[in-house]
Amino acid sequence: LWNMRSFVEATTQALRQKIGTERVICALSGGVDSSVTAVLLHRAIGDRLTCIFVNNGVLRQGEAEKVVRLFRENYRLNLVYVDASKSFLKLLEGIVDPEEKRRRIGREFIRVFAEEAGKLGQVKYLAQGTLYPDVIESVSFKGPSATIKTHHNVGGLPEVMPLELIEPLRELFKDEVREVGSELGLPEEMIWRHPFPGPGLAIRILGEVTPERLAILRQADAIVLEEMKAAGFYRQVWQAFAVLLPIKTVGVMGDERTYENVIALRVVDSTDAMTADWSRLPYDLLARLANRIINEVKHVNRVVYDISSKPPSTIEWE
Ligand code: XMP
């Protein structure tokens, strides 16, 4: 079709024309789609773009700081950082139903985002990193018509805010977005980030989301990413993450009986998340992951590997 350099040039021109002297906001998650969208917009309209990053309290270890730092260091774009973690965690108290978690997080996200957008005033457009698969597939995570899981994102915003949508990546696939990102000079770290769901770790903690359980999952998850990267497997898989199960099992440490949590590892190969297969990781790597998690993460005494494909399983556990 067209190469990514001409895509960048043509899109920048088109965005300038369409937007004129109006203002645009963009919900930035730090994922590759929203990051590329933000950088494209920034290239086109500079200061008239404001990005909003919402910390929903269920992000990975160090994630909020990392995204904010990457953007502040690399771009002079307007970035509003909102730490709403307390209100999100409050809303999740006592909630175990996956769909209820998703609904609560989605609603609160929209509330926080609308509040911030309101403070800016005079905004005409909302930019989103919608991709082609999101447009065509009914289980898309950014489209409004999710059928299997209530996928959360900012797709519902125009209903509460009279904003026009701008979706510059609508015709691209994930690998093309990564090429555009690379054309735009985005840091490798951003370009190759795995997808991360809007409801974040909340849907990877089965059962209630508590600060203690979040701390356990964050540590396990950080080990998974670190070891996947160290072994050179991070880029080869679609996603790799830890899930905290709502059960305890018996173990032994020294000559003491333990009764602690189970971590499940989920690592999948995929091209568009519509179908996926579990990654055939080397046994050595799996062994290292299990050993490190059990040795280093307090309150975990067992690690299991998820060998289910999608369908019939989904990538996330909730
Ligand atoms: P499932 O679990 O349905 O996930 O196989 C497919 C892909 O979508 C991601 N995912 C989400 N992304 N908001 C998002 O932005 C969500 O609510 C959401 N739920 C799942 C998931 O990580 C996988 O890449």
Automatic annotation (TrEMBL):
Pathway(s) annotated for this protein in UniProt: Purine metabolism; GMP biosynthesis; GMP from XMP (L-Gln route): step 1/1
GO molecular-function term, one example from the UniProt record: GMP synthase activity
Reactions listed under catalytic activity: XMP + L-glutamine + ATP + H2O = GMP + L-glutamate + AMP + diphosphate + 2 H(+)
Alphabetized UniProt keyword annotations: ATP-binding, Glutamine amidotransferase, GMP biosynthesis, Ligase, Nucleotide-binding, Purine biosynthesis
Annotated positions binding ATP: S29, G30, G31, V32, D33, S34, S35
Ranges of residues in domain GMPS ATP-PPase: 2-193
Source superkingdom: Bacteria
Keyword Ion transport listed: no
EC id: 6.3.5.2
A cellular component annotation (GO) from this entry: cytosol
Record text on subunit structure and interactions: Homodimer.
Reported function: Catalyzes the synthesis of GMP from XMP.
Protein known as: GMP synthase [glutamine-hydrolyzing]
Gene field: guaA
